C-alpha cells in the first residue's frame, strides 16, 4: 500500500469532527512521503521531516501533531488493514510547559485605568468574555445578538485551535457593546472610525508600563479570564464550552487554580477515626 492510498483510507475511515484538519495536515506531509510505499518509510524519513520543519521555525508542539498522525496511520495499517510494513520508531519532541500568565482583579482594574479608550474597551471585553484577540478586533455586528445576550463564533471566525461556539455575554460585556453602537456599520470595535486590525499595539504596551505590569501579552487576558473562572468554581468541562476549545487538554492547564474544589474532594475521602498517631520510639543500636 502506498502512502497516498493509506492517507485516503485514513481520512475516509476517520471519525474526527474536523476532517479538514486531517486533509490539511496530510497535504503538508505529502512532499515527504507521497512518493513512497508504507514499507519503504523508515526512521530517516521521519528525521528528515523533523529537521526540515525545525529549520523552517515550526514549533515542536506543531511538529508533534504530524508525528502523532503518522503513528496513528501506521497503527491502523498494521492492526486493522493488515498491511505488511515495519512502522518506524517515532518519538515525540520535547515541548516547553504551557505558559499561563494571569493577573488579579485589582491588577486588571488598574490596567484598564491606564489604557487609552479604544484599547480599554477591547481589553475589558476580553476579560468579560475570554475571546481571542482576532475575535475581538474583528467582531462584527452580525455576530452579536444583544436580545439573547450572545455572540456567535462560527465559520471563518473560528481559529485553528477552536470550534464554533456561543459566547454568553455578561451584563458588563453587553454594556461595552452598547457603547460602540453607531461607531461603525460593520465592526464593533474601532479606532478613529476605522476597524482595528491588532489590539497589542503601543497603546497596550504603554498601558502595561504605566500600570507596572510586566511579562503580560494580550492573549494573557484570555488566560486571566479562564483562571478567574476556575478560581470561582467553574468546572473544566464548562470552561471548555465557554471558551470554545476543541480539546479538554487545552483547559487542563487551569486545573490547579481550583484549590477549593480540589480541597473539597480531598476532604471527602473517608478517614478512619479513633486511631491515635504515636511518635515512633527510637531504638538504640540502629
From TrEMBL:
User: Core-binding (CB) domain spans which residues?
Assistant: 1-78
- Which PROSITE patterns does the annotation name? CB (PS51900), TYR_RECOMBINASE (PS51898)
Its keywords, alphabetically, are: DNA integration, DNA recombination, DNA-binding
Query: Superkingdom, according to UniProt?
Result: Bacteria
All copies of domain Tyr recombinase, residue ranges: 98-267
SUPFAM superfamilies with a match to the protein in the record: DNA breaking-rejoining enzymes
One Gene Ontology term of the biological-process aspect is:
DNA integration
For molecular function, the Gene Ontology terms on record are: DNA binding
Q: Can you tell me which family this protein belongs to?
A: Belongs to the 'phage' integrase family.
Q: Which PANTHER family match?
A: PHAGE INTEGRASE-RELATED (PTHR30349), PROPHAGE INTEGRASE INTD-RELATED (PTHR30349:SF64)
State the protein's name: Site-specific integrase
